[in-house]
Amino acid sequence: MKTKHIESQFERLGARLKVAPPRRWQAGYAIDIQHDREGEFFELRVPNVRDEEWEATVMQADPARRHLLLLVRSRIGEAARRNPTEEVLDRFLCGHDERHWFVAAVPGGASSVAQAMEALKPAAVRQAQASASLNRAQANRRNNRAFRRQGEWFFVPEPALRVDPKLVLRNEPIRRGGGKAHIVEELHRTGGERVYVGPKHPNGLTEADYRNLVKQNPAASGLGWRVMVRNAAVYARGKIRHPDHAVITLPGWHRVLMNTENESRSMANVAFLD
Q1: Which partner from 19, 61, 129, 214 sits 20 to 30 angstroms from 135, CA to CA?
Q2: Number of domains in the chain
């Protein structure tokens, strides 16, 4: 297993990469953001396997943007066990956003940083930037005519939307999985399904699944569950706060959309979510 050649590519971004053995409970490999006395660094945890079983390649590095696209070819882990004859290809966008380094699993077959950034945009965001006739430089900004972005969340203007004030929630959290919450000053949800979110179920259990769990294990009812709504149409207005990002202010209602990282099989190999 060779990793020396990719360490130099991370250095071009001003980043550090450390390679370590997997944790005891880890199946396959994982890429993460960790901290030491010098600050943040990328950590790649890989089993001691033959070169033909696992290889990482930097498809493109963009030092000006401080991003790179990492390709991992693997014959280890859960996907490889399901189909031992097939080589699994995973792509990760590694880079710096505002204040911190990040890792994002990229769906599809991107071969450049620019393609990876586009692949992480939901269809509605790409449609909005096309309607606004943005060029590539404008489309890659966090604030443009088509949308605002904070971390993995996109906010697309909905100027015609009218919301009953009684249906507006104040200082409401939005989050992906177990990541840190983004706090929305004013939020409106419509549709979706009610779910129970707990420490071991960050993506939520449906009403039926929750009741079945409590029936089998009555003590589970005391695990500090929160009732939330999953897959609703969500709209935001006002200030959006997150400890890792600058506050943004939305003057009117905006549709809230999450990036497409959850569509990538590779997300199972990203330990750091937010």
Answers
A1: 61
A2: 2
- Judge whether 192 lies within some domain: yes
pLDDT in tens, 71-95: 998 876 555 556 666 788 999 999 9
Distance from C-alpha of 32 to C-alpha of 45, rounded to nearest angstrom? 8
Domain range holding 21? 4-120+263-269
Alpha-carbon dihedral 117, 122, 128, 134, rounded to 10 degrees? 10
Number of neighbouring beta carbons within 10 Å of residue 187: 23
Residue 127 lies in a domain: no
Tens-digit pLDDT profile for residues 91-113: 999 999 999 999 999 999 999 99
101 with 14, same domain: the answer is yes
Q: Tens digits of per-residue pLDDT, 13-26?
A: 999 999 988 887 76
| The predicted structure's pLDDT at residue 270 | 60
Decide if 173 is inside a domain: yes
**Rounded Cα–Cα distance for residues 263 and 120 (Å):** 9
Q: What is the pLDDT of residue 113?
A: 97
Indicate whether 170 and 116 sit together in one domain: no
Same domain for 71 and 159: no
Assign 9 to helix, strand or coil.
helix
End-to-end CA distance of the chain: 28
Q: Say how far apart CA 146 and CA 124 lie, in whole Å.
A: 10
Is 157 found in the same domain as 107? Answer: no
What's the whole-model pTM score? Answer: 0.82
Q: Is residue 130 part of a domain?
A: no
| In a shared domain, residues 17 and 115 | yes
Burial of 8 from C-beta contacts in 10 A (0-12 / 13-18 / 19+): exposed
